[in-house]
């Protein structure tokens, strides 16, 4: 069983529990349902954008504990002040130490910044959750979903005003895309071996149709690789561990972005 299989199995149990505790109607009563979501696509395409989507991530299956003391409001505010174009906040607790509390803190502290709810989405219910907790974008991992379910979840997200980032790791997974998808992310991390290789993004970039805004995800640790990714057409760069493993993630993010100028 791969780590993604394990995560998805656990997620199905969590979704069933969440549904028994909180109804869709209750989620829709959240004040966040009334706010207009921020566009990650627009932020990444804006003139002079760094393209950095800075992630709040405290542990992971590949690295274990990354940062035990991090506080979501403080770090996400520092990321935005550093010039990040968007934020990503893990909400999976079991494998990543994430929470809706962290998402809500990031939302409250950064009202104008697009925020990705980073989780493992398998059910339309989770899209209501994302909207109810202030997210602007959801992630759909192509490997976990059939083409039909990916379309169903995409349409639900669009109906609720959210943007959709589809994550791929191989050329075959690109066949699951549909025209409603906003952003395509290439995961540089092989989820079977945990190896990271930024060249995965470069290789797949040529196969991603033009209308999709391209994001390179995972294992980005040096500003030099951004130049190569930009040349390959990437507008977004999802970076977590490189910042979060330091004593001062906001400072690390600022130093990284300053080197892009
Ligand atoms: O990070 C992991 O170990 C991981 C394992 C299994 C599934 C997903 C995983 N990561 C989720 C992510 O998408 C990353 O947090 C994100 O791309 C940032 O990556 P990094 O900059 O390498 O922290």
Automatic annotation (TrEMBL):
Pfam families: IGPS
Pathway: Amino-acid biosynthesis; L-tryptophan biosynthesis; L-tryptophan from chorismate: step 4/5
EC class (word): lyase
Any GO BP annotation: L-tryptophan biosynthetic process
Keywords, sorted A to Z: Amino-acid biosynthesis, Aromatic amino acid biosynthesis, Decarboxylase, Lyase, Tryptophan biosynthesis
Residue ranges annotated for the Indole-3-glycerol phosphate synthase domain, each copy included: 4-255
InterPro entries, per database record: Aldolase_TIM, Indole-3-glycerol_P_synth, Indole-3-glycerol_P_synth_dom, RibuloseP-bd_barrel
Catalytic activity line of the entry: 1-(2-carboxyphenylamino)-1-deoxy-D-ribulose 5-phosphate + H(+) = (1S,2R)-1-C-(indol-3-yl)glycerol 3-phosphate + CO2 + H2O
EC numbers on record: 4.1.1.48
Molecular function terms from GO: indole-3-glycerol-phosphate synthase activity; phosphoribosylanthranilate isomerase activity
NCBIfam families per the UniProt record, alphabetical: PRK00278.2-4
Family to which this protein belongs: Belongs to the TrpC family.
PANTHER family: INDOLE-3-GLYCEROL-PHOSPHATE SYNTHASE, TRYPTOPHAN BIOSYNTHESIS PROTEIN
Name of the featured protein: Indole-3-glycerol phosphate synthase
Species for this entry: Aquipluma nitroreducens
Lineage of source species: Bacteria, Pseudomonadati, Bacteroidota, Bacteroidia, Marinilabiliales
């Amino acid at each position: 069983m791969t780590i993604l299989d394990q995560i998805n199995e656990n997620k199905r149990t969590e979704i069933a529990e969440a549904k028994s505790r909180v109804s869709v109607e209750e989620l829709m009563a959240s004040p966040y349902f009334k706010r207009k979501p921020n566009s990650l696509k627009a932020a990444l395409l804006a003139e002079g954008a760094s393209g950095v989507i800075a992630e709040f991530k405290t542990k992971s299956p590949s690295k274990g504990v990354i940062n035990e003391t991090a506080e979501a409001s403080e770090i996400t505010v520092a990321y935005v002040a550093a010039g990040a174009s968007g934020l990503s906040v893990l909400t999976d607790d079991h494998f990543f130490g994430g929470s809706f509390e962290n998402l809500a803190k990031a939302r409250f502290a950064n009202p104008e910044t697009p925020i990705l709810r980073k989780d493992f989405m398998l059910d339309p219910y989770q899209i209501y959750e994302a909207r109810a907790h202030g997210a602007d974008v959801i992630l759909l991992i192509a490997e976990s979903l059939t083409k039909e379910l990916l379309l169903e979840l995409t349409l639900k997200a669009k109906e609720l005003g959210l943007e959709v980032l589809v994550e791929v790791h191989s050329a075959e997974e690109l066949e699951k895309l549909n025209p409603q998808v906003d952003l395509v992310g290439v995961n540089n991390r092989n989820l079977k071996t945990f190896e990271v290789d930024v060249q995965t993004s470069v290789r797949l970039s040529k196969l991603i149709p033009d209308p999709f805004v391209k994001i390179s995800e995972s294992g980005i640790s040096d500003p030099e690789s951004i130049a190569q990714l930009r040349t390959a057409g990437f507008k977004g760069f999802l970076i977590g561990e490189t910042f979060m493993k330091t004593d001062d993630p906001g400072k690390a993010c600022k130093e990284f972005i300053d080197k892009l100028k």
